[in-house]
Amino acid sequence: MTTPTLLPAAASAPPAAARSRRIWRLLLVVTAALAAISAVRAITGATDLTSTGAISAALAAAVPIGLAGLGGLWSERAGVVNIGLEGMMILGTFGGAWGALTFGPWGGVVAGAVFGALGGLLHALATVTFNVDHIVSGVAINLLATGLARYLASFAFTGIGGGPTQSPIVPSLPKWSVPGLGWLAGIEQRGWFLVSDLAGIIRGALTELSALTVIAVILVPVTYFVLWRTAFGLRLRSCGENPKAAESLGVNVYRYKYYGVVISGALAGLGGAFLSIVAASIFREGQTAGRGYIGLATMIFGNWRPGGLASGALLFGYTDALQLRRGSESVHALLLFIAAVLAAIAIFQFYRGHRVVGIVSIALAAGALLWYFTTDQIPVEFVRAMPYVITLVVLALAAQRLRMPAADGQPYRKGEG
Amino acid sequence: MSRLDWRRWLPTTLAPILAILLAAAISSLVLIGSGKDPWHAFSSMVEYAFGERTGPASMVDMLNRATTFYLSAIAVAIGFRMGLFNIGVEGQFRLATLLAGAFGAATFLDPVPGPIRITLMIVVAMAVGAGWAGIAALLRVYRGVSEVISTIMLNFVGGSIFAFLLTDQYLGVKQPGSENVTTPILPENAWMPSFPFPNTNQRVFGFIVIAVLVGFGYWFLLGRTRFGFDLRASGMNPTAAVASGVNAKKMIIVTMLISGAVAGLVGLPGLLGRDHAVTTSVGGLGFTGIAIALLGRNHPVGIAFAALLWAFLDRTRIILDLEQIPQETIVIMQSVTVLAVVVMGELAARYSRRQQQRSVGRATGEAIVERPAVAAAGTGVESAREGS
Amino acid sequence: MSAGEDGSGPPGAAATTDRPPAVELRGITKRFPGVVANHDICLTVQPGRIHAIVGENGAGKSTLMKILYGMLQPDEGQIFVDGSPVRFHSPQQAIRAGIGMVHQHFMLADNFTVAENVVLGAEKIAGIGAAANQRIAEISRRYGLGVDPGRLMADLGVGDRQRVEILKVLYRGARIIILDEPTAVLVPQEVEELFTNLRGLTREGLTVLFISHKLDEVLAVADEITVIRRGTTVATVTPDSVTTRDLATLMVGSELPSPEARESTVTDVPMLTVDGLTVTDSSGRHLIEDISFTIHKGEVLGIAGVEGNGQAELVEAIMGIRPATGTIVLDGQSIAGWGTRRRREAGIGYIPEDRHRQGLLLDAPLWENRMLGHQTEPPNARGALLDIRGARRDTERLVAEYDVRTPSIDVPAGALSGGNQQKLIVGREMSHSPKLLVAAHPTRGVDVGAQASIWESIRAARRAGMAVLLISADLDELIGLSDTLRVMYRGRIVAEADPATVTPEQLGLAMTGGTVSGEVAA
Q1: Are B260 and C356 in contact (CB under 8 A)?
Q2: Which residues contact A342 (CB under 8 A, 6 or more apart)?
Q3: C89 is in which domain, residue-wise?
């Protein structure tokens, strides 16, 4: 949904070579980032940066964002912009809590997805059948969802320990762990550069995972496979690239758009169910806190592909988790890391010849450093704003190299070809 | 064919009315479903709003609420007409109200006469609102970031800044005898005068005058000035607007600034007319503005009616509680109305377009095939398809 | 059944086989709100032949083909394929019956590969992976199309894209192939290639239905020709029995307007001088390079070239919509750094290539569209305010003077036909007495009557001393209206020509890079 400022030239190298180059570059970036974080941790003593707890929380925070992002992906690949993800997520939070209380935790998962899917159905009805502007419909659905959730909650939860804005405690889902990793805890305590951080990260990523987290992670490659390796996925994507062409070849564009949007709602609902069942163990009004929108941002950040989306979700999840834990200390330490990243970006941009962006990055890096050295802590309100600021910064920097589905957001009516 | 061709305006005027009726019908069904009598509910609401006993106070309250709603909706509508989605009214108006309230209570302004003080506060509010919206505008123009996402993010960031500043370390003061932190109370000469209303001692905000002026300004700016033409053209067809000489970047920035400036005013009726200090309860009006702008079809008079309707629904919620009807029914009704209006609006526009094409075809006897009224983003090779 | 007003009957004697006709249409009628697009169409296409359908814009050809392809349903009449009656409710059914459509406007997804575009909707035939790629490569080889299934669509040029469209149709096993105005974007040499491909297809037993309004091409390749006028079939003839003139007369029912010889109105006062104009995209590629020319008062400079060779970028650079380097001098003043509005106010009129996207506000009434592009000048505006009454009054005048057929000026522009929309645009630009008129494809998609009226307006502009920059793909229009000609190829000017002596073939050669520099001698 970002308005790209240029149409990027297609890759001239054959796809296989380009892909392996990309993988090497990715490994390089990841290793560099890891080293930088370890260094920051060692320098500042903010051990929470790479602790098991933080990584675990980061993964948990990434799940709802990632699910929302996947939801956005399915919808936009079918050509429909879905701002209503937030609303569908809200419906999912209610559905998850209500379902868990009524049918047990797995029932809650299903109910959350169903409620979200119903929201998606409404959005599809408005945009595909009635050709309402996609953004207007999405905003309207967000309005509706908030009120509807409260309305339904007032019926469902009063009298059993809750009310219109809150539910009673919800039964939880099982947790899974990769066995035999207990020894990593010892290494993590030692505080060794890089090794301890790795230990913390591995333990955080592979132990005490909620079942729903595992499902969410699996959904990423599943999405890739379905959309890029099956006939169903090809047809759905064609609706987002050139619906007239698809129509002329006998694809029922309306139907595939419906599929995309309803699945999108279901995924967002699933993300909501995660929030109410796993993350908070209750339904609370406002618990989505804009994650639907952050999910959209991760989708854009991931260039409308599941892999990039997942890494974006992890990034945002990490910042989200940090601010919820020992926020002030960790975020303060993170300033150093941010300064380093901005400096790297600045060098990269100068190398590319983009002087203005380079100068801005250097200035921001200097600012971050200054802030780090002149304060001990970051005020709690700023910490809470971090995910949103990071979203803005990432979008602002990444805008140039994106390629959204060609017919995304455009109204479509059969026969007007 | 007269200028007021019924084919043009009737469907689009009818659409909101039909939508409201549809929403009322759905809400009635919901009420019946939970064992309540919809007719009783609606009549209590009307009685509470217009009846002899509580009517006058209600009417004043509704006018006051509508004033804030109107300003919020106009701010959003300015963006809508240009094809921009300013979802950031919430953040813009909260920051603007806070800073205006703090500024207005500053002691160095004490020698300044009241009306000037109020005027300065208005200016500050508009400037802050415009500035906050300007960030999103710059991100859109120079980095291609969709203003939908950036304004939403800025809402959250703005909320954080609001919370940060409204503490007794910075702009706030603790009220004696309570834990509430507010900005210092404005001196009485900075209280905006209000209008009396028959049969009640509640008074109508003086700011309603400014709201009306803003509405008039909106109509005039968009309909009667060159800039307004450029704005509307950009909203209808950005490519054609650029070809006609509009500077797209400048247009986006200026529109967002104006929208933000109007958004900045949203909190002032309450601040100047009732609270006289900024409290943490300032908020919630941004999304309402979007709903009302949609309901009023971005038309200055339509928005006024929509604002009054919304105020009516908001005001009469309380009475439902007494009748043991969940208040949330109102929220459902409001949001269903919005959805219904946008759908109906689309259908009405389509119907109106077909009717007009038909009438042109009949009048000229020429071969026309129904074509999409939206300029199709084609391959650029050919656009107009004759009936060939 | 296809007896027309001229009494030319069906070429029954020419049928050489006793196979049933590949396609037969009887009494097809289709109505739309406000108009009848097809009325009692009768058509018989013999198998293994190339059958052309000719008619001017607005005659009903595309509607008919959409009916045959299942995108529309006829209100009356019957369709027979290979002798059996059929009823298509979707393109998929038509495809299953062996009918394939190659669209005029390519229906291709740029972000997909060739294979993905071909396979879409036909995944059952060979899946979507290696097997499909293989089959595509095989078909491409057999019919000499030369297309690589792994390439990204966005990388392919116009000729290749058309071949992909043909490939799509062959992949689905089509036996009857419909081509809708296939030569619209091709130059004569590429047209020959296409015709060779088509003859190859009929040699393999396929049937080809070919829609066009280019009569000389049709006469060159078709075995049979059916003429459609005002929504109904008028005659079916064989190419050796008619001339271009005959066909044209059948098509319009009267004499074709043709740009004719006239006195020169060219002065020696330069109005627009462009020197070294260059436009680059963000990756540094030249979209136009080092363009230089001068247009004098009273002169029409025509620029020929196949779509996509920089003409659109040139126009946008002159209008200030696209940044460019180089000098642009209008009437003695350098306007290179000026914005679009300032340039238009300085006296540049603009008839854009795509009137829906660039020239009109379709949902706005006519009088507001009259203001578009000139909203800062009288009679539309006075100072910073709009002069609505003045604009309305002037719109009434404009509508009358330029013969814009509309019941009122409050009608939305989208309700008018293309020809009337274009006349409105032409009138609006002329009303401000521009010094320079930039006309990009001014009669594209416009009916013959409107075309004649627009040509007359351009001639009147010349006589009044205006300089005109004319970009067009219609070689007859270019030759007929221009005083001088240039040819653009790959963003450069590669040839100059004298319209009085040059032929379409010579122009076509230059347009495909045949001569890099120098005059194209008569």
Answers
A1: no
A2: A361, A362, A364, A365, A368
A3: 1-98+175-254
ipTM: 0.81
Surface-to-core class of residue C9, CB atoms within 10 Å of its CB (0-12 exposed, 13-18 middle, 19+ buried): middle
Number of domains in chain A: 1
H helix runs in C10-60, sequence order? none
Residues C367, C187: Cα–Cα separation, whole Å: 39
The CATH number of residue B132's host domain is 1.10.3470
SS3 C264: coil
Inter-residue contact C340 to C347 (CB < 8 Å) = no
Let me know whether C487 and C447 are in one domain. Answer: yes
- List, in order, residues 6 or more apart from A277 with CB less than 8 Å away: A96, A97, A100, A105, A108, A109, A112, A170, A171, A172, A173, A212
Is A9 near chain C, with CB under 8 Å?
Answer: yes
Place of tokens 């998962």: A109
For residue C264, being part of any structural domain is answered with no
Distances (CA, A) of B180 to B107, B184, B268, C362: 21, 12, 20, 55
Per-residue pLDDT tens over the stretch B170-201: 777 777 777 778 888 888 877 888 888 888 88
Contact at CB, C60 and B244, closer than 8 angstroms: no
Q: Does A83 touch chain B (CB under 8 A)?
A: yes
How far apart CA C209 and CA B296 sit, in angstroms, is 52
Is A410 an interface residue toward C (CB < 8 Å)? no
In this complex, the residue of B153, B346, B371 whose CB is nearest that of residue A132 is B346
Quick one: how far is CA B64 from the chain centroid? 14
Report the CATH number that the domain containing residue A254 is assigned in CATH: 1.10.3470
C130 touches chain A (CB under 8 A): no
Tell me the residue ranges of DSSP E strands in C9-104.
23-32, 35-45, 50-54, 76-81, 84-86, 99-102
Last residue of a domain, which of B252, B286, B315?
A: B315
Q: Tell me, yes or no, whether A332 lies in a domain.
A: no
Nearest residue on chain C to B359, alpha-carbon basis: C34
Q: Is A229 on the interface with C (CB under 8 A)?
A: yes
Whole-model pTM: value is 0.81
Within-domain flag for A351? no
Alpha carbon of C291: minimum distance to chain B alpha carbons (Å): 22
Q: Is residue A370 part of a domain?
A: no
CB distance A87 to A292 below 8 Å: yes
Cross-strand pairs, B194: B205
Average pLDDT score over chain C: 83
Does some domain include residue C261?
no
Tell whether the model's pLDDT for residue A155 goes beyond 60: yes
Residue B177 CB coordination number (10 Å): 6
| DSSP character at residue B373 | S
Residue that is last in its domain, among B284, B315, B346 = B315
Question: Using CA atoms, how far apart are residues B8 and C368, in angstroms rounded to an integer?
Answer: 15
Q: For B332, which of A151, A293, A395 is closest by C-beta distance?
A: A151
What are the pLDDT digits (tens) for B87-138? 999 999 999 999 998 888 887 888 888 888 889 999 999 999 999 999 999 9
Residues 6+ positions from B143 with CB-CB distance below 8 Å: A395, A396, A397, A399
Return the SS3 of A409: coil
Return the amino acid letter for A292. Answer: G
